[in-house]
Amino acid sequence: MSPSSTALSETEEVLFARLFMQAQDTASPAPILGDSYAQQYINQANCNFHRNFFITDPRHVKAFICRNKLHDQWLQHFLDIHAVAKTPVTVLQLGCALDSRNMRVNRGSSVRWVDVDTPEVVSFRRQLIPAAPGDYTLMSADMTETSWLDAIPADRPTYIIAEEFWMWQKPHNGKKLIRAMVNHFPRGQFATDMVGSVIKELHWLMPILKGSKLKFEWAINDGREFESLDRRLKLVQEVRWYEVIGTALRGGETPEIFGRWTTLASRIPGFKNCAQVVLLDYGVLPTSRRTMDSSTTESSGLSETSVTGVSFKGSGSSVGGFTGAAFSSDGRYSPMPTRSSKR
Fold it and tell me: What one-character-per-residue DSSP string does 263-276 give?
């Protein structure tokens, strides 16, 4: 039975919420992400687009898309520097849902890509999306367990990406999985995002979740909380939710997370930590690419500007050593950013 021939469950419809925003971005005069697949997949589904989690507020859409773009850029940087070094890599994407990241980024034949999600989501994805070309695996797994990692070879540097994932996991399950991944793979990077305590406690005020049974399970206020899970995890960069889009905490383009209650909520200590995007190193990266090792005083080689071009230098845990945005002409991170003089 095809997704277009039957009504979808709430879980299945939530999967299309990402695509709905990506399609709006693609249809805009100046797309940020420019995902050409989202609208194709939406056209195949029988969705109730009047649900609250199908967002049309341009501020919310921009914030979501900029986070997508930042994750793509960080990943592309990792792929590029290993391509230059002629080192094969693995990409593991947790909670892949219906995302087409494996088609958006430029991945060569030396990239092993593994998308993982729950059996329900994987089954639905297979109905809707053709298998990606190249060395690609779509795997179903129980995210409360870790034994499924044994099916993934641990012979390469591995980039782990978990977008919009940990907030739905019980803390003890999430911590167990993170430790298991760092133990399983020898080295690489770990990119993720999280919601803070303010959002977790006030989720019932969020218009996007109104009328939904969904709730957040795990709040993380500081990227250094990941470092505490394993000494091999080293924070490279942390970008707060409003910095991703290059706006002030209470700027005109800042999304009203809690609707009409946002101004009041903004007075709560910790409001600025409602959500963050973080990048961490783990294990030992090749010594020939010291710019990727955040444990040194050198730079991570990553840009200190948001995807909209606005600087967030000095925020979170962004480190110095390079000047200017490290983007190539097509908007991706350059594999060889120009080194500035020591400060």
Answer: HHHTTSTTGGGSEE
194 falls within a domain = yes
Nearest-CA neighbor of 261 among 205, 329, 324, 201?
A: 205
Sign of CA dihedral 95, 233, 285, 319: positive
The DSSP bridge pattern shows strands 187-195 and 158-162 to be: parallel
Question: pTM for the whole thing?
Answer: 0.81
251 lies in some domain: yes
Question: Each residue of 122-140: pLDDT tens digit?
Answer: 998 999 999 899 999 999 9
Q: What is the CATH number of the domain that holds 130?
A: 3.40.50.150
Q: Cα separation of 322 and 301, whole Å?
A: 7
How confident is the model over 223-241, as pLDDT tens digits?
Answer: 999 999 999 999 999 998 7
Q: Bridge partners of 232?
A: none
Pairing of strands 158-162, 136-140: unpaired
- Eight-class DSSP state of 276: E
DSSP classification of residue 185: S
Q: Assess if residue 202 is contained within a domain.
A: yes
Domains of the chain: total:
1
How far is the C-alpha of 197 from the C-alpha of 139, rounded, in Å? 31
